[in-house]
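User:
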Amino acid sequence: MTVRHWSLAGLAFCALMMAVALALQYVAGLEPCPLCIFQRVAVIVAALVFLAAAIHDPRGWGGGVYGVLGLAAVGGGIAVAGRHVWLQSLPADQVPSCGPGLDYMVEVLPMWDVLSRVLSGSGECAAIEGAWLGVTLPQWTLVGFVVLSLVPIVLIARGFLGGRRG
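Assistant: Predicted structure:
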């Protein structure tokens, strides 16, 4: 398989993740918390990297470069989803209090402060709004990111470790 094939597979998985997120929001009525929104941003960034890689379809180490960029995006998603899962596992007395909404913070705070506050978590992110097969939505998202990480790992291995067949 070429870089294009792997990248299209990653792009399709990103599209599936976003389709599920949007269906949960607009069909099931589950409003995303700030950490959910940041996870969506990570999916979109990964999708853009995979799209660029699919269009470019580089040979040799170029695929590895796209793999590193894709792994950075997916790794960010894993970190945010992991933080979300951790917040939901806290006992009720240790859950941080709810802060201002993300829209408000983006309007009045510098972006670095917004990132810091969102990643520190809030009570709304610790609430478990839904589960499927006994697994919470952030846990499913974490699994999705781990599966998605296989694509950039393959691109890195092919690009930097000699798998240059097309």
